[in-house]
Give the backbone structure.
Amino acid sequence: MLSKRLKTVADLVSPCEKVADIGTDHGYVPIYLIKENIAEFAYAMDVNEGPLNIAKANIIEEGLEDRIETILSDGFDNFGDRNADSVIIAGMGGDLIVDILYRSSKYDFKELVLSPHKRVDLVRKHLCESGYEIIDEKMVEDAGKFYPVIKAHKGDSDYSEVQLEFGPILLNKKDETLKEYLDIQLNKFGRIISSLEREDKEVEHKYKLIKEGLEYYV
């Protein structure tokens, strides 16, 4: 039922009483977490009514409607006075994830499991600034695309620019999937720089960061 990417996301969730899945789509992750006894109760939340109705049907089909509550909500806007031990936000851009987290600052979540499909540096920077420490990271390749997955708990943290870009734990443990991604990016940006007719500082800075990331593997 779960894709390789979503299985990686779900497997980073710590055993807990309540979990909230933001952007749940068809509800596969909450269903998995309940069936595997990783969470006792789950909130399946989505901003779109169509996918949420499908999630509701899937939950009923599994006989889990007493353990998974569906909520139509833009981020945590309709979460009310509920709370969760662990929060999952996956499958959207880093800027949107940061916006959702910023607007949910009144809640005290012990754990965040986040998988942005772009601008992951913004997510890691926000975690640092809002009192979270990255305690685990995975990089997964699924259907030809690379996805970082971040697990953060409350704590102090401070990361360098290259660590914000590619992940402190992924770099320090010399993650092989990240290495594959960096090699691809190095070739890509090398070709871009070779084809430029004039200097592009943003592209050249990205190329420099990629090379810095690869230095962890030397």
